Amino acid sequence: MARPPQDPQIRINEILDVAEPMFYANGYHETAISDIVKKMGVAQGTFYYYFKSKEDILEALINRHFSKFFSEAKVIARSPSFSPTQKIERVINEVFHMLNNNGEGLLFEYLYNDKSICFMDKLARQGKQQLQPVLLEIVESGVQCKVFQVANAAATVRIMLALLDSLLEAFYEGIADELLHAQFVLTENLLGQVLGMQGETLALNKNFK
Fold this sequence. Notes:
- This protein is mainly α.
- The chain has helices at about 10-25, 35-40, 45-50, 55-75, 85-100, 115-145, 155-175, 175-195.
- It contains eight helices and no strands.
């Protein structure tokens, strides 16, 4: 077996970089560990030095994408350069940008099937758990400076996440563009109402795909 690099993260990233496009091209369930190590040109034992299973690869991929996104989201939330409304818009639009997967299609779309419903549920729950404190920080800041008029910031964020969850589900379902646009507009209006923006709406990126 090839000797592992001194920095384990180097080999981990190599495995992830090879596995992810294979999941998109062939399907997650259809891609075997043997396919990944063959593509890399390494022994199977090398893989098991870093990952116990294919599920561990998926977990690492999710964490890698989420880590990058939430680092950027926190910078936006704490930036003095944006108003609370702009921060909400930018964070939500960053969600769509992440989903765009650098123009390669919807992120983790290979999981959107009956076989992977547990993974999709885990993905959604993990995303909402990490996004919730970011949105809460922005909403509370907006309440303090009287941009948002809400009675309970935590409850408001829960409703916001439910609206976004419905919109993201529409993307993965692949609904018609006209219907998707209508849902986008409705989501903007509802988010504005939930935040108590007094007739104003948010400007979300409807052309992220």
